[in-house]
């Protein structure tokens, strides 16, 4: 999935940083990485995407960073849970590369 996302986002010219897990992503942000946007899977081993959203939102300066969840889940209750945690958006997998790029361009001017 990481490779698919990186390939889809290459045309944007953005500097894409990857993390192997939610814990890895959180550690990178805690260590000083200031992403313009975070794209995470909902279901990961260990920390879930919703847990990552909550943790990132609790960090200084990360209150308004767009965070989008990628998931196979399409249930409304899961979307509401993500929104309540602070997620900006939701994209159902398998994702359309053009839609992902359009979303990124909208959220990262």
From TrEMBL:
<dbReference type="InterPro" id="IPR011006">
    <property type="entry name" value="CheY-like_superfamily"/>
</dbReference>
<dbReference type="InterPro" id="IPR001789">
    <property type="entry name" value="Sig_transdc_resp-reg_receiver"/>
</dbReference>
<keyword id="KW-0597">Phosphoprotein</keyword>
<dbReference type="InterPro" id="IPR050595">
    <property type="entry name" value="Bact_response_regulator"/>
</dbReference>
<dbReference type="GO" id="GO:0000160">
    <property type="term" value="P:phosphorelay signal transduction system"/>
</dbReference>
<dbReference type="Pfam" id="PF00072">
    <property type="entry name" value="Response_reg"/>
</dbReference>
<feature type="modified residue" description="4-aspartylphosphate">
    <location>
        <position position="41"/>
    </location>
</feature>
<protein>
    <submittedName>
        <fullName>Response regulator</fullName>
    </submittedName>
</protein>
<feature type="domain" description="Response regulatory">
    <location>
        <begin position="1"/>
        <end position="108"/>
    </location>
</feature>
């Amino acid at each position: 999935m990481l490779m698919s996302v990186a390939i889809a986002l290459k045309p944007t010219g953005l500097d894409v940083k990857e993390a192997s897990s939610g814990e890895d992503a959180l550690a990178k942000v805690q260590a000083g990485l200031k992403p313009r946007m975070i794209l995470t899977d909902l279901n990961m081993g260990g920390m879930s995407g919703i847990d990552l959203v909550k943790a990132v939102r609790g960090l200084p300066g990360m209150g308004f960073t767009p965070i989008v969840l990628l998931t196979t889940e399409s249930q409304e209750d899961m979307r509401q849970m993500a929104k309540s945690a602070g997620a900006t958006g939701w994209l159902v997998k398998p994702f359309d590369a053009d839609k992902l790029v359009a979303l990124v361009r909208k959220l990262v001017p």
